[in-house]
């Protein structure tokens, strides 16, 4: 699975002009399943995100996790993370998992995150979404789990 984590001061996702997920400080997590990914890979990804120490401690060093700071987690599906741009100017998205697998693993990520963290919001799989964020730092971390 591929994920892009953005440390945010706030973030929200809208569908058809309606806010469906919103957090204050925490992580915006854009996530994409790839063919061959499993529930175990999704679980490993969520564990990494929850423990990743990129929030400032009292000395200003990135030494605290989203759990340590009580931050939110806004998880949004984004198949375009699997874009292959090597063949020309129009990206290919064949590296993304088929929709059924992508939906199942996205929902599994949500379930695992919600079982281990108190503030988890989400987008809507397959929807045309508008994501608004205030990137903090900016801190943007790419992750790939296999």
TrEMBL record:
Pfam families: Tyr_Deacylase (PF02580). A motif (Gly-cisPro motif, important for rejection of L-amino acids) lies at residues 137-138. It catalyses: glycyl-tRNA(Ala) + H2O = tRNA(Ala) + glycine + H(+); a D-aminoacyl-tRNA + H2O = a tRNA + a D-alpha-amino acid + H(+). It is found in: Cytoplasm. GO terms for molecular function: D-aminoacyl-tRNA deacylase activity. It comes from Roseateles subflavus. Its EC number is 3.1.1.96, 3.1.1.-. This is D-aminoacyl-tRNA deacylase. Keywords: Cytoplasm, Hydrolase, RNA-binding, tRNA-binding. The gene is dtd. Its main location: cytoplasm. Belongs to the DTD family. Homodimer. Transmembrane segments: none annotated. An aminoacyl-tRNA editing enzyme that deacylates mischarged D-aminoacyl-tRNAs. Also deacylates mischarged glycyl-tRNA(Ala), protecting cells against glycine mischarging by AlaRS. Acts via tRNA-based rather than protein-based catalysis; rejects L-amino acids rather than detecting D-amino acids in the active site. By recycling D-aminoacyl-tRNA to D-amino acids and free tRNA molecules, this enzyme counteracts the toxicity associated with the formation of D-aminoacyl-tRNA entities in vivo and helps enforce protein L-homochirality. HAMAP family: Deacylase_Dtd (MF_00518). InterPro entries: Daa-tRNA_deacyls_DTD, DTD-like_sf. A Gly-cisPro motif from one monomer fits into the active site of the other monomer to allow specific chiral rejection of L-amino acids.
């Amino acid at each position: 699975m591929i994920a892009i984590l953005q440390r945010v001061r706030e973030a929200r996702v809208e569908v058809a002009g309606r806010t469906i997920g919103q957090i204050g400080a925490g992580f915006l997590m854009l996530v994409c399943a790839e063919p061959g990914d499993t529930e175990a890979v999704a679980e490993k990804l969520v564990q990494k995100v929850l423990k990743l120490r990129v929030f400032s401690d009292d000395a200003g060093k990135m030494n605290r996790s989203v759990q340590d700071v009580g931050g939110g987690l806004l998880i949004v599906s984004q198949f375009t993370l699997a874009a292959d741009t090597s063949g020309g100017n129009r990206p290919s998205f064949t590296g993304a998992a088929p929709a059924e697998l992508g939906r199942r693993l996205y929902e599994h990520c949500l379930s695992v995150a919600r079982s281990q963290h108190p503030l988890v919001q989400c987008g809507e799989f397959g929807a045309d979404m508008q994501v608004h964020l205030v990137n903090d730092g900016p801190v943007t971390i790419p992750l790939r789990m296999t």
